[in-house]
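Hello forum,

I keep getting stuck at the same step: I have a sequence, I want structure tokens, and every attempt I make locally crashes halfway through. Rather than fight my setup again tonight, could one of you with a working pipeline run this one for me? It's a single chain of 485 residues.
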Amino acid sequence: MSAHSEGFKTRAMGKAAHAEGNNSIAIGAHAHAEGRECIANDGSHAEGFGTFAHGWGAHAEGFYTTAIRSESWIVKSTGVGGDKRIDIGSNNLSVGDTMLIAFRYNAPPMIDTISYKNGDYIEFTNISDPSNCLVILRNFSSSSSAPHAEGFNTVSSSYHSHAEGSSTIAKGVSSHAEGAETIALGSSSHAEGTSSVAGGTNSHAAGYYTTADIFAGTAIGSYNKPMAGSATMFNSSADAFVIGNGSSSSRSNAFRVAFNGNVYGLSAFNSSGADYAEYFEWQDGNPNNEDRTGLFVTLDGDKIRKATNEDEFILGVVSVNPSVVGDSHQDDWNQKYLKDKWGRIRYQYIDEPEKKQVITHNPEYEIKYSEPEIGDQGEIIKEGYYEEVLVKEGYVEEIIISPAGQEYLPVLNPEWDSNMEYIPREQRKEWSAIGMMGKLLVRDDGTCVVNGYCTPNGNGIATRVTTGYRVMKRVAPNIILILVK
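Reply #2:
Ran it on my machine without issues. Output:
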């Protein structure tokens, strides 16, 4: 079978298996274990100290890491009532069930049986320190597909998952956990930092004790508040991004953005711009792409034109440095979605089928020992031998990575053409941002003075008057800074 072992008390049992180092064990075909007290089986690779790799393509490296695919529970609390019981929450376990236990510190994973159960509490036969348990797994068949654990005391326990760092857990399909004590639970989720949890499908949690528990949500910072939305389905009104600024005693957010574009902040918004502006369309379309910066404008219906000294109403000044800009429609046509008569976007629920991923499982083999044949006179007729026996054929499995449900989406306007390029108003000559409040630069005819007042002349240019807009400063021979309120 070409098995090979070297070092101190190593064992290699299986076709092309290899074990080296100190008390390392390679069990099963093509297994490779190296280092100290490492265990690898069936096409897996374990290296380092106390690592455990179980399943085809599994890889565990570092210090007390575990790469395995199985049903698992994360330990919530331990040492109930001073005894050896472990609380793992609601479960369907029974006394006598065989489990694999990964530990927090200074102990390699071990297989043990449940000796006692009462409600959510279980007790194992040989575990003397339940407070050291990190995660408990069962159904650990070797049908895993390439989980990878590295670092210190990490656990990778699902298809294509990856755990690295210190005491991290990657439990979702194709999930990734890194840092210290982070957990990636959702499919294709990513947790990083310290004690962050990515619980939603496609979610991302980073920072310090953050939680991203909704579909495609991102949480960073420290101790954010729970995000609103579904863990597995997209919802346009759900939270998209939060920055937490809380503590262990009080979770809170500094900043929050929803998928519908709403933005919420805890404190001030600071900008180098100095006015509030909104986009308006020129009545003449600005056919020659004229630079009209610093001109006074007025309204004619819902469009703008240059203001004159005969206009009773002045809308504002063409601005180039606003702090806030309204009605900009930077990303999409303003009629992309259907709206009600008040301009509110209409939403609808859309049925979304479950999403699956195809996993190919390799055949599973078992190493069996055949006893030697002994003759009537005690002679050995046939030597004992090990052989590799097929115990399970290879097969293809479909796993659900996202369940069926309903997504909450805006209703598209049938007149919207996704193939047409959209040019934002900021880049179109017929639109300008009009500053209507704040400090604004205005063109003048050279007559305006500081601490004096101005209004537009016949061409939208400021001229000196006794009452009007306050002149704050002259910045150029034909430009002044005024206050609009």
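The chain has a mean pLDDT of 89. If your local run keeps crashing, start a new thread with the error log.
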